[in-house]
Each structure stands twice: as C-alpha cells, then as structure tokens.
Write a structure and sequence with these properties.
446 residues, alpha/beta, Glutaconate Coenzyme A-transferase, 2 domains, 8-stranded mixed β-sheet, globular, transferase, NagB/RpiA_transferase-like
Length: 446
Amino acid sequence: MNFQKEYQEKLVSAQEAVKIIKSGDWVDYGWTTGIPVDLDRALADRMEQLTDVKIRGGLLLWEPEIFKIKEPEKHFTWNSWHMSGIERKAISKGFAYYSPIKYSELPRYYRDSSYPNDVAMIQVTPMDEHGYFNFGPNASHLAAICETSKKVIVEVNKNMPRCLGGFEESIHISKVDMIVEGENPPIAEMGGSTVLSEVDQAVAKLIVEEIPNGACLQLGIGGMPNAVGALIAESDLKDLGVHTEMYVDSFVDMKIAGKINGSKKNIDPYRQTYAFAAGTKKLYDYINNNPELMSVPVSYTNDVRVIASIDNFISINNCVEVDLFGQINSESAGLKHISGAGGQLDFVLGAYLSQGGKSFICCSSTFTTKEGKVKSRIVPTLAPGSIVTDTRANVHYFVTEYGKVNLKGLSTWQKAEALISVAHPDFREELIKEAEKMKIWRKSNK
C-alpha cells in the first residue's frame, strides 16, 4: 500500500489541526515525553476562544504553553493521572486536578469510560515502512487513548526513540486522522547527575543485601530507588531481570555493568519489560531500536497476576510518610498533593505473591521544612487529608537509614515497635508516648 500518499493527505499544520477542538471537549495530551509540543503551542494560541476544555495528561516534564495563558482556569482544566512538580504548581493556580486511579487500570478506564476523548494529541516517531508510528517510551496507555478518541492527531518528532515491543507500542496511519510534523525538539530529560545523599546510600545498602542473584527488579521514581540501582551496578549480583512500570537510568547502568541479562525470568526471559521510560539522553539512546527492551501497556507491567508469576520479584518504592499503624502515604503532605497512586500498591501486592519476592517501601527518617525545622517521616497518625497509598495490611518491608523491618503479619503493638525502631533517635521517645496514648504500645516494648 502507498502509505506515503496517505501520509501527505493527512499532513496538516499544528494550527489547522487544533481547529477541531471545541469548547466543552475532552482532549488528551498523552503522557510524559509523549506530550505534544507544536500542537500545545497552537492550542495555547486559540485557547482564549474556548471554555470548559477538559484535558488529560500526566507526569509533565516541561510546562505546556496552555498553562501560560492569561487566566487558564477560565478556559480549561488539566486532569492529571500522576502529578509532577509542574502540575503541583498548577493545582495552586486553580486549573489542575488529580484523577485518582491505579496506574494499571488506565487502559481499561479509557476503553470503558463514560467520558471518551473528542481529540487525542501525542508525540510519536516518524512513520515506518509499514505505516506505523511508534509511541516512543510511552506504550503505557496510549493505544487505549487512540482507540477511544474520536479524532487522533500525531505530532512527529524525529528525536523520539523507537521503542520495540511488546504490544500496543504503535499506531497505524489508518487509525490516525491528522499528522503534524513538529520542530523535532530534543526529548525532555528527567533526573541525571543527582548526587546521592548518605541517607540514600544507607537505605540502598540495606535493600541490596536482600536481593538474590537472578531476582527481577522494579524501581520506582526518586533518589532512593536510583541509589539501589547504582549500588547494584557496583555489586557482585548477576543474572538480574527487569519488569517495571518506569524504566530509568539506573537500569542502563546496571546493564552496562553486566548485572542484567534476564536469563532467570520465568516469563519474558531475556527481555527488560516496561510501560514507560524517562531519564537522560543516555537512556533514550539505549532504548532506541533495542530488541532487548520490551515496551508494553501498563495493564501488563502492573498486573498483580503477572508480577506474582515472576519468581524472586523485588519491588522498591519511595513514600512521603508512614504512621504507627503501618499506613503508607506516597501521594500528599496533608492536603497538599504531591504525586499519585501510580503502581505502588500493585507492586507491593504482586511482589509478596511472587515466590521468593519482596517489596520495599523506603524513605529518609526525617525531612526539613522550608523554615528549617526537622520533622519525622514516621508519625503517630497521618495528617488530615493525607492519602493512604498502601494499607497497613499490605506493607512488607519498610526501610530508613536506621534499619529495615518486616511489617507483614505484625500486631499493632509489634508494628509500632518495629517502625519506631527505624525512626530517627530524636523522635523515638515522642513516638512511644503517642503510641501509648493510641493503645498500641506494651510496657514490655521499651
């Protein structure tokens, strides 16, 4: 078939493409590095003509132009599946909102939704000889977005890495309504040369000693999971596998160091499986056209049943705080929204069901406020408005720089004792007093 002829017939300018968006429409911007650039700029130019446009997206790595218009709250709402720092600031300005959902459920949500998209606009790779545009590092839920949108506009970026699969990692030109050739900006980077703190390294050391040869890894976003990856790269571990929602630079480092080969994975052997990737240019260069990488939808990577079927599954994620009942908050500081549910609970549940599997929730024992006050991340009860990401019944290992504790199956007094044992020493007496008031402390504990 002559795909080039069809390509030319569907090729339009960004300004022409966004004319189809009307007031009241649901519009999808995609995800992370797939967020459109030229189309966003064109929509910003005409957004003041529109009202009540409802836009979905998530994990923004740069500030969209639509965020910069005058009084954006009068023209659109941004509905995020997972918040970045850019989106948190937009909440305070009154036009951004979080959409609570388990990340694994997104493909089904789109396919079952009562609020289908009128328009989807996403960045993709150039079309291949078979007529396919690759979603780049964002298989995630983009196929479901495109399937269920009335109009699909793709913005071609020659710098987008082509990520092999897998499945649901591409869209055929026959399913595309309009094509925009973008200005080919570099793919937005995340992280990079962050210096790991002594706390990060202490936590990482406690976790790495629990990882056996042949384990399959999932790393969450943030400094501590990356510290684990850095330490693994320098360790004697071998034959590791990867099955993760987010692919980060640490996996590249581990692979280069010879730690990852996937030979012990009992599903998808020799493949590094992931739903989306974000990192530095080193990562994007590595995943481009790499047949070892397996780009798949998040409904597969984060499926508890799939995770549970992989032996020796090791899941490592951050949190904001934990209370003495063992409830994990990874999403907010009281009413102040921070991120989202993501896939943390799925991996906590799946890793525990895996033969030989373990999940680790980690954090520094304290944090310092803007005013310079040091506070404990282990608290008697979560602050009003704080979100329970992982319930007290589900948490396996909890780790700070002061130690690691296995919380599974402990009674309330045992759990309080274990958590206080890894709290910062300056806060332990205070936490004991609060635990006594809460009737979850035995005199024999101390």
